[in-house]
Specification:
Blueprint (H helix, E strand, L loop, with lengths): L8 H4 L8 E4 L9 H10 L4 E5 L9 H6 L3 E6 L6 H9 L3 E4 L2 H13 L3 E4 L13 E4 L2 E7 L3 E12 L4 E2 L8 H7 E12 L18 E4 L16
Helix pairs in contact: 5-6
């Protein structure tokens, strides 16, 4: 089996160049590639197009790269927790493509599956439909949406082995597996890196064939976007 382990995030992202297109896994702040994002901030890569469910918050996740003006364009579905994102959008500094969440997920999945386009009813009759082909199926109007692919996919898993097989936990499984399939080069950071053969084959969510580099991350914060409590 091929050993795909690299030493750390800085080595893993060393060849991500300016103006690259990135997919960044996670759902909200759950299961995001924290170490890879921090390494990109240190590296100072600019002109990035980021495909992600969200834009992080002001001081965490993709928000860190927005703060340092490294992101040229965001392709996302939920961006409501980031004041700096809002400021850059309204000032015209940041190009933004907002996509219905299910459509975003399917466009990424299509990219990984080699499906160049598909029809969906989501967004018909709204600004989302502007400039897109419309066709009727079973009495309902649908939009033609194209696949999404990326130069690099940055994903975060709970466990992985040195051949790149990945296991995700809970909500982190929402976008990470499909993004792992849609990147030309997929970089995985994991909470626990084990030897090949230690993972139960029946529990693997992403086979190692989709992963080119893997490393064990460190110092995960695992933030909560909106903490809600009650008085007992």
């Amino acid at each position: 089996m091929i050993n795909k382990q690299v030493s750390n995030a800085d080595e893993a992202i060393h060849d991500i160049a300016d103006n690259s297109t990135l997919m960044l896994g996670g759902f909200g702040l759950c299961g995001i590639p924290e170490n890879c994002i921090a390494a990109l901030v240190r590296k100072g890569t600019t002109g990035l197009t980021c495909i992600s469910n969200n834009a992080g918050v002001d001081d965490f996740g993709i928000g860190l790269m927005l703060k340092t003006r490294q992101v040229k364009k965001m392709i996302s579905s939920y961006v409501g927790e980031n004041a700096e994102f809002e400021r850059q959008l309204l000032s015209g500094e940041l190009e933004v493509d907002l996509i219905p969440q299910g459509t975003l997920a399917e466009r990424v999945r299509a990219g990984g599956a080699g499906i160049p386009a598909f029809f969906t009813p989501a967004g018909y009759g709204t600004e989302v439909a502007e400039g897109k082909e419309v066709r009727e199926f079973n009495g309902k109007m649908h939009l033609l949406e194209s696949w999404l692919k990326a130069d690099f996919a940055l994903v975060k898993a709970w466990k992985g082995d040195k051949s790149g097989n990945l296991v995700f936990k809970g909500t982190a499984r929402n976008f990470n597996p499909m993004m792992a399939m849609a990147g030309k080069i997929t970089i995985a950071e994991v909470e626990e890196l084990v030897e090949v053969g230690e993972l139960d084959p029946n529990q693997i969510h992403t086979p190692g064939i989709y992963v080119q580099r893997i490393f064990q991350g460190q110092d995960y914060e695992k933030r909560i976007e909106q903490r809600t409590t009650r008085i007992n």
